[in-house]
Amino acid sequence: MSINRVIISGNLTRDPELRSTASGLPVLGFGVAVNDRRKNQQTGEWEDYPNFIDCTMFGARAESLSRFLSKGTKVAIEGKLRWSQWEREGQKRSKIEVIVDELEFMSSRDGGGQSYGSQPSSGGYAPAPAAAAPMPDASSSVYDEDIPF
Q: In the predicted model, is pLDDT for residue 128 greater than 90?
């Protein structure tokens, strides 16, 4: 048995980018910075070290949320890790990203968080779940043109 679940919270590192697959499936890509605290061995002080996590969300919820997310937005995300690899200019490349199932705003104008996903939460409004869209497999060319290097 394998378990592949991840929960992170942090701030968006850039404005999200909404694209569509060749079949019209909305794909939302964004980055989240998650700080890790470590003790600096030389100074003895605790310091924050950012981890930059690529996140991808599919379907109608991705399209809807793209209007509310922007750089700096604090969010909590639940999803699963997905590893993909490709070849560019003769060099093999790979990455691990979070495929987002649930997204909750950790701060808002009125001070309350809002959850957007397939499960309603007690802390806020959750819209009705969108029909499950088929996930493109990692070997498809969805990501080839989206890789920044």
A: no
The predicted-structure confidence for 90-118, as pLDDT tens digits, reads as follows 999 999 999 999 999 997 555 455 545 54
Question: For position 132, what pLDDT does the model report?
Answer: 44
Indicate whether 92 belongs to any domain: yes
Q: What residue numbers bound the domain in which 131 lies?
A: 6-146
How many domains is the chain partitioned into structurally?
A: 1
Question: In the prediction, which pLDDT does 147 show?
Answer: 53
Q: Tell which residue, 148, 123, 3, 12, has the closest CA to residue 77.
A: 12
Residue 65: φ, ψ to 5°: -70, -25
Q: Is residue 1 part of a domain?
A: no
Nearest-CA neighbor of 146 among 76, 79, 75, 54? 54
Compute the chain's Rg from CA coordinates.
17
Largest CA distance in the chain: 54
CATH of residue 51: 2.40.50.140
Query: For residue 50, is it within any domain?
Result: yes
